[in-house]
Design goal:
The structure is a single chain. The chain is an all-alpha fold and 339 residues long. It has one domain (23-338). It has 16 helices and 2 strands. 40% of the residues are buried.
């Protein structure tokens, strides 16, 4: 059963033939990203870090938005809280890795507590509420100047080493977070939690009637959607060395992450990975060549997804598309021969 409530179970031979190929492609992709410090310049490494970072957040969003079907726009809140908790911990002398761990736990606990309230909403009400969470947290951080620095932001202790060494360290940490998020996705997909979340996606009332604790399952999904975002935020703060409310709680970020997951295929295991890679590379291309139209093109991609690719890249029937293409060419050749 897929994220849209439809069955996505494959037959035995199909599973055996497709899954090893998918995992091999993922291993190749991770290896390519990991090799960028050796093969490319700082710009290439930055793109690789961006891909790993957003892939981790897209995989996280997939728990609540893909498997469960709740259109969450809280990602920027989780990311921003992770930034500030990690930064404040480091500024108070807590070791780097411990600060990152504290940020991860703090964001997960925040999401669990928030989920008790906000997950009572459904549909577009939940979507609006999740956007409001981002703005409320941003305003609190902006106003609490004695702790967070307010609108002036915070300086974060820099990682030790030269630019190349720091970029390589951040890349490998982001890749580790991405792989951890992917591992969690696989476990959820194959386990009882994944089954329950898909049941909620298909019909929440029916799921509740057959004994699924929908509240507990939704809170678990919402907490998972925040967990890795908090880690990513803390690592990002250490990487850039400076954070402020506008950048850390960006509404654009909270829109981009769901778009990446939807582009690849929400509710699938590999969809967020494919969608993020395609989106980031397209964004870099359009940013470099069409600077003034970059945001307009992003809006165009969103519209295209809604109307022409609702299931994402991985849900397309490529065999059918190939057969239709061959049939069309055959008809064209027959028409040309008849003339």
């Amino acid at each position: 059963m897929g994220g849209d409530g439809t069955s996505t179970k494959l037959s035995g031979p199909a599973v055996l033939s497709r899954k090893p190929l998918a995992y091999a492609a993922l291993a190749l992709w991770v290896g390519l990203l990991a090799a960028t410090p050796l093969l490319g310049d700082n710009y290439t490494v930055r793109i690789a870090i961006t891909i790993a970072m957003f892939t981790a957040m897209a995989l996280s969003w997939n728990f609540i938005g893909g498997f469960t079907g709740y259109p969450s726009f809280s990602t920027a809140a989780f990311f921003g809280i992770g930034c500030y908790v990690g930064a404040l911990a480091q500024r108070n002398g807590i070791p780097l890795v411990v600060a990152w761990t504290l940020a991860t736990l703090a964001v997960a606990l925040f999401a669990a507590a928030l989920g008790l309230i906000i997950l009572r909403l459904k549909g577009h009400y939940f979507a609006i509420g999740s956007i409001a969470v981002v703005e409320v947290v941003r305003l609190i951080v902006s106003s609490w100047g004695s702790v967070t620095g307010g609108g002036d932001g915070l300086n974060v202790p820099l990682l030790q080493g030269g630019p190349e060494a720091v970029s390589a360290i951040v890349l490998y940490v982001m890749l580790a977070i991405m792989l951890a998020a992917f591992g969690a996705t696989v476990l959820v997909d194959r386990g009882r939690l994944g089954f329950g979340l898909r049941c909620i996606n298909q019909n929440e009332d029916a799921a509740d009637m057959v004994g699924i604790d929908t509240t507990r399952y939704k809170i678990a999904a919402y907490s998972l959607s925040a967990l890795f975002c908090g880690t990513v935020g803390a690592v990002y703060a250490s990487w850039v060395g400076y954070i402020d409310p506008t950048d850390s709680f960006s509404i654009l970020l909270t829109v981009k992450v769901p778009v990446m997951a939807l582009l690849g295929g929400a509710g699938t295991v590999f969809g967020p990975i494919v969608g993020t890679g395609v989106f980031v590379l397209l964004e870099e291309f359009f940013w470099a060549n069409f600077l003034e139209w970059n945001r307009a093109i992003l809006g165009g991609i969103i519209v295209f997804l809604i109307f022409f690719l609702p299931g994402g890249i991985l849900r397309l029937d490529y065999r059918r598309l190939w057969r239709d293409l061959l049939a069309r060419r055959a008809r064209q050749r027959s028409a040309e021969a008849a003339e």
